[in-house]
Amino acid sequence: MFTRRVLPLAISMAVAIAPGSPAAQTGEPARRMIDEVVVTAQKREESIQDVPLAVTALSDLQLDRAGVQDIRDLPTLSASFNMNSSQTESQGSVFRIRGVGTTGNNIGLESAVGVFMDGVHMSRPGIALGDLVDVEAIEVLRGPQGTLFGRNTSAGALVVRTKRPDLDNVEAWVNAGFGNFSSSSVQIGGNLPLIDDTLAVRGSVAFRRQDGFMKSATGAESMDRDRISLRGQALWNINDRADLRLIVDYADADEQCCDAIFRVDSPIAEPGPISGMNAFEAAGLPADGGASNVGSNAFNNRRSNADQFENPFEQWGASAELNWDLDDVSITYIGSYRYFDATSVQFSDFVGTDVFSVRPEVAGGQKTFDEIETTTHELRFAGDTDRLQWMVGGFFMWEDIVEGQGLGLGADFSRNTSANLFGLAEDPVQMQAVFEALSGFGVELADGTPFGAIHGADPTNPALAFTGGVDPFGSFANNSFNQTSRSWSIFTHNTFRVTDDFDLVFGLRWVDEDKDGSFEQSLSNNSAACLNARANSQAVPANAAAAGLPQEVVNAAAGAGAITAGFTCFPFVTPADTGQSGLPSEFDLNFSDDELVWTVRGVYRFTNDTMGYASFTHGFKAGGFNLDPTAAAITADGSPADPRFDSETIDSWEVGLKTELFDRRVRVNTALFYQDIEDFQVLEFTGVQFVTFNVPKAESKGVELEIQAAPMDQLDLSFGVTYLDAKYPSDCDAGLEGNATVSALCGNRLTNASDWVGVLGLTWQDRIPGTDLIWFAHTNVRAESKRRTSTQLVDPVSGNPREIPFQGANAKVNARLGFGPEDARWSVELWGNNLTDKQTTNNTFNVSLRGVGSQDTPARASFIEAPRTVGATFRARL
């Protein structure tokens, strides 16, 4: 249905704005032309219609009218771009272009979509999520951009340009807004020339606050905003040929993010058919197991269960850009330093009972944090002859990452484990009978202690017997990860004018990546409970068989022992020095790789207003380290697993057409693309650990259409639609046969990659009769077809389907109504986002340690997207 609606809409709009159509002939033809759009997609200023690649360019006015406050809002304006955040915004945010992106929540993984702020690379998505203030333009570059933009642009790039200091004019401006959820925002900025035509400074400060739109049964709230951003610039016009731009920025946030909502609970929460009691009740816990908010009501009303999540961050940076024009050569140098620090408190069990959490109070004082320092240098030389535009340059980056993890097991951990043991049968009384049989027949633990000696003291907590009477409550580990990266490259990008109408573009970039990664565990106090559980998971069923118990009892005991060992040896709290199979081990290793990235494009100008191009690009994203305690887990042969994952490469073919029609009142740009990805980097949360792996094959293909038009003096129209087929091919596991995790992906779509996405923007602006005021009304709509929100559609081991793996087709409508004088000295605006209050999700996952019973169906939870917000904004400027 989505397909049948979008294509006719695109066709009807194109026809309606054509002067030869009946719609256009009913009135006087429009005379206003579309503004020329200047982009820097090839690191030089050019009209967007002259650039032979797919670009979405967004001006400051478009961003204001759409209410864009940060990168999270950009999908409303670009059909091929989307983003989502999961457990922490600082670490778990993902950018995607054409369906291709790298799942977050592991600081060792780098984004496939690069973000460049005033020429400086933001090395992780979380670093790029600050407020967008005093922005001149944003460019969404679709497809691999490695030859010019370098590392981590295998899917595309976002280029953000803030306004440069003005050497001639004094400026001052303020924006103030308020809305529901007690939201408020203030932005203040200005520009001041200090020396005529020589030196000017520019600055801005922004405050934003909003209450969380998710409420928990414990009283906690999540998804709020509480942040401040500052930026200062200086521009020195050294002489007629050289200028120097200096930028410093600072941002601080104290925010509560990100809780999740139970979509469906595990069958262990259902009453047994014999006793009418569920597994949680049998284990001495509340009947809901700490999840009183579950299902559609919880989802639609944004109600969760856990305690307070926290995700504060602080960052600052400085950069310098020197431009020097010689007679035949232009030299550009950009250098930067950036520091980012984020901490988090997470009740990652997502329930109201105390199963486990990430916070210093339960982890021996260990904070969970990410600290990133990045230094970059880029030097470019460019020139232009009669036939050749050329550019050569070099780039160097040094980055140091320190991550600390502190997770502790709570007072209800052992009983939660027992609930999962009772859930092994259809009714908890059936498992109670098993444990009574083990006690009654004198079955012994590994150390000779009778099972019944411990179980008899508390029959509601059989997991305690498997841990030898050692309660895991209070167990924790302090895990530290370090990664130091060095990246350098040399590149060239050139346009050769073969004829007046035909250009040949070719670019090369040699990339060399070197990383040192390590995992150290300074403390873990969980060895007794974990090792006891492992030993007893073998001893109890063996001794039960020796005692002559029925095979079904032996099998049930084996299952219960395996679950207890698996839960108690929770990877984030398990000692890294046991040497036992499946348990963590420390590592200190090196990763290095190099690649030649290249592109070639043929460009043909059919007329002054129409250009076509065809291109091939080979892209690259370096591999690295899975910074997770289980990354180097001991294998069956006693050796540690390799925590490194391979580099990702992409081959992209693209054909595009760009044209302006009807005296530049209509602009139509379209592109067809096919992208073949090898060793696609994937991260999956299993409910117990984060697993990083390479999928040998993935692909993304489709077509994009963008239309801008000024059919009337008062009306601006923009429309974009993307048809996308982004998937793992049926042979995606080629060369990895026998790898169930990868094979289960084959034939499925990539995560959060809809078949169809359409965006529509309409702005009507006119004078208020009898005044010198103008008014405007703006609306923009984003509609998308169904998309997958889970890495896996089925469990790789059991083959059982995952619950709620999709977000259904939906459309979201934003609108803004305002008025003010024509010179924009001030304006008053009313606005609303997601006006129909469509509740959607971007990531659905297995809830940790909740549900491994006979149905093998764990509880499932989702991270949700913003609800309806409404408010007003006042703008004023000198």
Task: Explain briefly what this protein structure is.
The chain is mainly beta and 878 residues long. The protein is built from 13 helices and 43 strands. Helix 7 (413-422) runs antiparallel to helix 12 (551-568).
Explain what you see:
Helix 7 packs antiparallel against helix 12 and helix 11 packs antiparallel against helix 12. The chain is mainly beta. It has a 22-stranded antiparallel barrel. It has a 5-stranded mixed sheet with strand order 3-9-10-7-8. Strands 4-5-6 form a 3-stranded antiparallel sheet, with no helix packed on it. It has 13 helices and 43 strands. The N terminus is likely disordered. It has one domain: Beta Barrel (Maltoporin, Chain A).
Topology:
Layout: H1 2-16, H2 22-25, E1 38-39, E2 46-47, E3 55-59, H3 60-65, E4 81-85, E5 93-97, E6 100-101, E7 113-117, E8 120-122, E9 135-142, H4 146-149, E10 156-162, E11 171-179, E12 183-195, E13 199-210, E14 214-216, E15 221-222, E16 225-237, E17 242-253, E18 261-264, H5 279-282, H6 296-301, E19 303-304, E20 313-325, E21 330-344, E22 356-358, E23 368-384, E24 388-409, H7 413-422, H8 428-440, H9 451-455, H10 462-466, E25 476-497, E26 502-524, H11 527-546, H12 551-568, E27 587-607, E28 610-621, E29 624-625, E30 644-645, E31 648-661, E32 666-685, E33 690-712, E34 715-727, H13 740-743, E35 756-767, E36 773-784, E37 787-788, E38 806-807, E39 810-821, E40 826-833, E41 841-846, E42 860-864, E43 869-877
Parallel strand pairs: 7-10, 14-19
Antiparallel strand pairs: 1-2, 3-9, 4-5, 5-6, 7-8, 9-10, 11-12, 11-43, 12-13, 13-16, 14-15, 16-17, 17-20, 18-42, 20-21, 21-23, 22-24, 23-24, 24-25, 25-26, 26-27, 27-28, 28-31, 29-30, 31-32, 32-33, 33-34, 34-35, 35-36, 36-39, 37-38, 39-40, 40-43, 41-42
